[in-house]
TrEMBL record:
Segments of skewed composition (Low complexity): 1180-1192
Organism encoding this protein: Acanthochromis polyacanthus (spiny chromis)
Signal peptide: 1-20
GO molecular function: lipid binding
Protein name stated in the entry: Tectonin beta-propeller repeat-containing protein 1
Residue intervals of the PH domain: 645-755
Keywords, sorted A to Z: Autophagy, Cytoplasmic vesicle, Lipid-binding, Lysosome, Membrane, Repeat, Signal
Record Pfam families: Hyd_WA, Pex24p, Tectonin
GO CC entries: autophagosome membrane; cytoplasmic vesicle; lysosomal membrane
InterPro entries: Beta-propeller_rpt_TECPR (IPR006624), Peroxin/Ferlin (IPR006614), PH-like_dom_sf (IPR011993), PH_domain (IPR001849), TECPR1-like_DysF (IPR010482), Tectonin_beta-prop (IPR051513)
Compartments where located: Cytoplasmic vesicle, Autophagosome membrane; Lysosome membrane
Superkingdom of this protein's organism: Eukaryota
SMART domains linked: DysFC, DysFN, PH, TECPR
Length: 1212
């Protein structure tokens, strides 16, 4: 069944080729539908390197010529040559080729500017042949002609037609001849001297650019680098002209050593100094680009050795053979944003189709990067390319028929990397029982994996390690490398192996303790020495000892050996040997993460955190133990190295500069994971402005809040950073559906929390807040938030969203959190702190949407909807600045749905008449509910209810609807059996909740507290201080409240500030702050334990809508606006700085996140900063920018009036 499926897959998938070159310059191809390496038909062909594209492969020969191999196809490649025969009429001879001196050539191109006689056409190379002789095109304009192909006109260059007229003085006809490309499937030499000046000998080429056109794969580009460091571009490559027409030099400021072109518009070049160049401005209109940008090498001390690019990825190998991945690469950002180290030791890498990665390992084996997907472009492991070789079915792993005994280890530092340099000589060893099973790659490192029946391999026995004299004198065959450039770079490698002592010189005790490493063993039948490649002397010592031990232990120890391959078999160096690779190109090999390729099917990947040596490519020698170890290893987690994960998508971006509008953009979240598990992420936004590709980026560890916003009925959210918070310039994005927005918000929020080390539910000390949209936000504070010195700046606070929808929320430091919905429903947080795990429950909320109907009075018709030209719209919002009709008014966001029809709202501040009208002298003065002689305008409010349903960790507390709630704040070390909770019903009744505790946060019942009028705000502070504000603005203090008497005894009236009506207050440990109807903030002076009512009110600031005083008397507010930013949506979180026992009123304001925040509660934050001169520890919200001193913005408060002294409190 599997065989049939494989045949079906091969019939569906196109057959593509993987190309590789060995050190002798021999070129091989491996088909995705086959299993065997095939050598090029031309046995004399020697190439230094190749570069493949869709349907073709280019190469550089040892003769410095460029070669092309076009894949065979059903349709032949034909090119039509054409020229025009031109004639003019004269009275004597009629139409002849005798033209006027000002006429075009007798034989020319279609424009007549260039002469093209028939004999001037030559075949561009030997790869072409003529299909026939020249013939006349008998059609004119695509239609058959009876004039022998002639077209007539009055003169050159007028419009030609097949009809001959009396004034037709000139004529022309087209001659055609076809030539056919005959070199498909073979390597054809491209002449360098035709037709333009050839470049100097090339040392590198790269094919790419075929995805820039609409017809993908049809128009590839070819770039070249000369030996003098010049960059050349091959012009004229076309489906009908696969060789191109000529070379064009591209100016480059520095000498280039190697370059790589991607399928799209990416081109990177490697300089001789080890740095990198990026070509910018590549497009169809400008295929050679516009400028160069320099990028530093990944390692500061190690230069780059090789670079390869794909559609949106860049891979680099440095001279220490470490592999690096470039983050953030995109056509909008071709330079990328940073380097990520990827495990493995490679000589070169090549990025092929679908951004798949191929490599030549340090051991000269071929490798493939598994797990490369659009979401994880860095992949997660290396596996060998195991194609069959020769006439047998022997599979080529990185090396063949090698033995190794011991444990999987990292590569030894003594490995010799050059093909031509080797100072070690070793005599033959007696062969062991070596199995020929196919190698199985196991992802186990660096942990020790025992291979024998016991937990550890047996100790090696002593063996004769001194090479014979004949072996010392035997010459070593030389294996040439086909690329002098690679040799020159490899020679820069620090050859630590050459200076190491031989095996015979090493002490026996030391040699036993050395870790095993790769070794090449020569079969006894060879009878001669072989050239050593990647020989490790320590590995040879360990392998010999293991062989000696294996001889004494017999079959029981045979399971503890690896069957590894040698560089050369017993037949010596020749064509029958396994190739020693030096170059690979996968640009034409169409594979991806899900491809079923027979030679890419290991049972386990190599971990990318290890050096890629033959040790890691080992195979089990015993089939039974092989299966056991597979099962054992499969239970262990795969060890990963640095990797990159990418999530891409399409969103809309609000471009907040003129012309302001929504723009479709591409977005990408790129997250890199280091080998130690640490992660960092970058969020990219790609857009196009005036046909120029641009991008924005945000570092996730700098994001301070992700908050949904109300924008034109879009599923929108805003991204804030400290800098964007200061500038009041959030990054606003919108999704097409609610699910897309929630997915992106969840993904980004998880990455933010992960970068900051935040996990789990909010802490007991958390600050809670709600937005005008109803979203619940929380901040886990650090000690430095309320520190007297080095206070954390407000714009550095990290806010995360808690599922749910509330109008206001209150908390205390025992972990109790209560909230009130827009419809007055009471909710209690059911997360940790209540004794149970957080439970997601369905939560609904209902709110009203309002529009105002406006009218003006005139003597003829009375009140009508005909206003003055300067009046507000007759249907508007409350401010009158925006036109809002019943028809064009929608719910606050797409998550809401209407649940009622429009109706007149009679519950309006100031009252209404029986029809719901409010009257005033003019817009926009204060409205009242009765008509007078001076009232010329009126308005009434229409309301419509909408509903939202979400899920969150909130438990409903029925049945009374509330308008305000307060929990008594306490210090972190406090213990209370019963937590006092006071609230106001939606009708203004005062309530006290009984039975509230950490085990029962919802409490048991409500206790009604009598009043003589309805209240609108209430707060309980330290020591059971209960303050409240009546609906008429009167202030009251509740006396005798205690744990034994939770409802208290009586209300004491506190005079309000002069000519001011208070609307909201908050009580801390020893201070009381209140906000009046004019958004002024007041402080109550003179509070003492003996006189808790205080003595006078003092004005602190204006521009305040809500205030929250914490258990440490810290003061936070919701500011109505931020000075200097009048266009920002009202509602900004603001912190009072300088608050202390000697300065309870504070000194200045520090503005934080803003743009639509409704409520804040700091009554749970009782984290006191440590005392002393030592530095304060940073919390999860800290970032490097937090070390700076805050620069708070002063509130534009008026000059403070003298303190207002109040009379004695009275009992009511």
């Amino acid at each position: 069944m599997s065989a049939v499926l494989l045949v079906l897959l091969r019939s569906i998938m196109p057959v593509t080729l993987l190309w590789a070159v060995d050190v002798y310059g021999r070129v091989y191809s491996l088909s995705t539908a086959g299993q065997r390496w095939e050598r090029a038909d031309d046995l004399l062909l020697e190439l230094k390197r190749v570069t493949a594209g869709k349907g073709r492969c280019w190469g550089i020969g040892c003769d410095h010529h460029v070669y092309l191999n076009m894949m065979p196809s059903e349709a032949s490649i034909r090119y039509r040559e054409e020229t025009y025969e031109n004639q003019r009429w004269n009275p004597v001879d009629g139409f002849t080729d005798t033209l006027l001196p000002t006429d075009r050539w007798p034989w020319s191109d279609v424009t007549g500017m260039n002469p093209q006689p028939l004999h001037s056409f030559q075949l561009p190379s030997r790869s072409w042949e003529w299909e026939g002789d020249w013939f006349v095109d008998q059609s004119c304009g695509g239609e058959p002609s009876q004039t022998g192909g002639w077209e007539y006109a009055v003169d050159f260059p007028a419009n030609f037609s097949p009809d001959k007229k009396w004034n037709s003085c000139v004529r022309r006809r087209r001659w055609i001849r076809y030539r056919r490309y005959t070199a498909q499937g073979t390597w054809a030499k491209i002449p360098l001297d035709n037709p333009k000046k050839p470049p100097l000998p090339l040392c590198d080429i790269s094919c790419g650019g075929w995805e820039m056109s609409d017809q993908s794969g049809r128009y590839p580009y070819l770039w070249g680098v000369s030996q003098q460091g010049q960059v050349w571009f091959r012009e004229g490559i076309h489906p009908r002209v696969p060789e191109g027409s000529g070379w064009e030099e591209v100016e480059v400021p520095k000498e280039v050593a190697q370059l790589s072109a991607g399928p799209g518009d990416l081109l990177w070049a490697l300089l001789w100094d080890g740095n990198l160049f990026v070509r910018t401005g590549l497009s169809l209109d400008s295929p050679t680009g516009t400028s160069w940008a320099e990028v530093e090498s990944p390692g500061k001390e190690v230069e780059a050795l090789h670079v390869s690019v794909g559609v949106s990825v860049v891979w680099v190998v440095t001279k220490d053979y470490k592999v690096w991945f470039r983050r953030g690469v995109n056509s909008h950002n071709p330079c990328g944003s940073g380097w990520i180290s990827i495990g493995g030791e490679m000589l070169m890498v090549d990025v092929g189709l679908n951004d798949q990665v191929w490599a030549v390992g340090e051991d000269r084996g071929l490798y493939f990067r598994i797990g490369v997907t659009p979401s994880e472009p860095s992949g997660n492991g290396w596996i060998p390319v195991s194609g069959q070789w020769g006439n047998n079915k022997e599979v080529i792993p990185p090396r063949e028929n090698r033995e190794f005994s011991g444990q999987l280890t990292e590569a030894s530092q003594a490995s010799v990397l050059s093909c031509t340099d080797s100072d070690s000589e070793l005599g033959p060893v007696e062969p062991q029982n070596i199995t020929s099973n196919t190698p199985v790659l196991e992802a186990q490192a660096p942990s020790v994996v025992p291979l024998g029946a016991t937990d550890s391999p047996p100790p090696p026995q002593e063996a004769d390690e001194t090479p014979s004299a004949s072996q010392k004198d035997a010459p070593k065959p030389f294996i040439p490398a086909s690329d002098s450039f690679i040799n020159s770079l490899v020679s820069d490698r620090d050859r630590t192996a050459a200076s190491q002592p031989s095996i015979a010189e090493l002490p026996q005790q030391e040699s036993k303790e050395l870790l095993p490493a790769p070794i090449l063993l020569t079969p006894e039948a060879a009878g001669h020495d072989v050239p050593w490649m990647n020989v490790d002397l320590e590995g040879a010592e360990a392998a010999r000892s293991a062989q000696a031990a294996g001889a004494s232990l017999g079959d029981s120890s045979a399971a503890a050996t690896y069957a590894l391959g040698t560089l050369e078999d017993s037949q010596g160096v020749g064509e029958e040997d396994g190739p020693v690779w030096t170059w690979i190109s996968g640009g034409g090999c169409d594979v991806d993460g899900g491809s079923q390729i027979s030679w890419l099917s290991p049972t386990g990947p190599l971990t990318s955190s290890l050096s890629l040596t033959p040790v890691q490519s080992a195979a089990w020698s015993d089939q039974q133990q092989q299966q056991e170890h597979r099962e054992e290893i499969s239970k262990k987690p795969l060890e990963r190295s640095n990797s990159v994960w990418v999530r891409k998508g399409m969103l809309r971006w609000w471009r907040d500069w003129k012309p302001q509008r929504w723009v479709d953009v591409g977005v990408a979240l790129e997250q890199s994971t280091r080998s130690d598990g640490r992660k960092d992420s970058i969020f990219f936004v790609y857009y196009t402005q005036y046909d120029e590709k641009k991008y924005l980026h945000v570092f996730i560890n700098e994001v301070t809040v992700l908050v949904p916003v109300l924008r034109d009925c879009h599923y929108a959210f805003a991204v804030y950073t400290p800098e964007r918070t200061k500038q009041r310039w959030p990054l606003v994005l919108a999704a097409q559906t609610e699910k897309d927005m929630e997915d992106w918000l969840s993904l980004l929020s998880d990455c933010c929390c992960e970068c900051r080390g935040i996990s789990g539910p909010p802490s007991r000390q958390a600050l809670w807040s709600t937005t005008s949209k109803g979203d619940v936000m929380v901040h886990d504070p650090a000690f430095s938030l309320e520190a007297a010195a080095h206070t954390m700046a407000c714009d550095l606070m990290f806010w995360r969203q808690v599922p749910g929808h509330l109008h206001c929320v209150e908390s205390n430091s025992l972990g109790l959190v209560w909230g009130i919905g827009w419809d007055g429903t009471a909710w209690v947080y059911s997360g940790p702190g209540s004794g149970d795990a957080a439970q997601m429950q369905q939560q609904t909320d209902v709110r009203s949407v309002h529009v105002y109907e406006n009218q003006r009075w005139n003597p003829m018709t009375g009140y009508t909807d005909k206003g003055l030209p300067t009046d507000r719209p007759m249907w508007s919002d409350e401010s009158g600045l925006k036109e809002c009709t019943k028809g064009n008014t929608h719910p606050p966001s797409p998550q809401w749905s209407w649940v009622s029809e429009w109706a007149v709202d009679f519950n309006v501040p100031g009252g209404t008449d029986k029809e719901g009208w409010q009257y005033a002298a003019d817009f926009p003065t204060t409205f009242h509910g009765h008509k007078t002689m001076k009232d010329f305008v009126r308005r009434r409010r229409w309301a419509r209810k909408c509903k939202i349903t979400v899920r969150g960790p909130w438990q409903q507390v029925p049945p009374i609807r509330l308008s305000d709630i307060s929990l008594m704040p306490c210090l972190a070390q406090s213990r209370m059996d019963q937590v006092p909770v006071w609230a106001l019903s939606d009708k203004g009744d005062v309530l006290c909740r009984l039975g509230v505790s950490q085990q029962n946060p919802a409490g048991s019942s409500w206790l009604h507290v009598g009043t003589d009028q309805p209240f609108k705000s209430i707060s309980i502070g330290g020591a059971n201080q209960v303050w409240a504000i009546a609906k008429d603005g009167a202030v009251f203090y509740r006396g005798s409240v205690s744990p034994q008497n939770p409802a208290g005894e009586c209300w004491y009236h506190i005079p309000s500030p002069l000519r001011q009506t208070l609307r909201q207050l908050s009580v801390g440990r020893t201070s009381v702050f209140a906000v009046d109807e004019n958004s002024n903030l007041w402080y109550r002076q003179g509070l003492t334990p003996s006189y808790p009512q205080g003595s006078a009110w003092e004005l602190i600031s204006n521009n305040v809508t809500k205030v929250s005083v914490g258990p440490l008397d810290q003061v936070w507010i919701i500011a109505d606006g931020v000075p200097g930013f009048p266009s920002e949506t009202p509602g900004a979180v603001c912190h009072r700085l300088g608050v202390g026992p000697m300065q309870p009123k504070g000194q200045s304001w520090d503005y934080g996140i803003g743009g639509g925040w409704e409520h804040i509660s700091v009554r749970g934050n009782s984290s006191e900063p440590p005392r002393g001169p030592q530095a304060l520890p940073g919390g999860p919200s800290r970032s490097p920018a937090a070390q700076r001193s805050p620069a708070p913005q002063q509130s534009p408060a008026p000059q403070r009036p003298p303190a207002q002294v109040n009379g004695s409190a009275v009992v009511v």
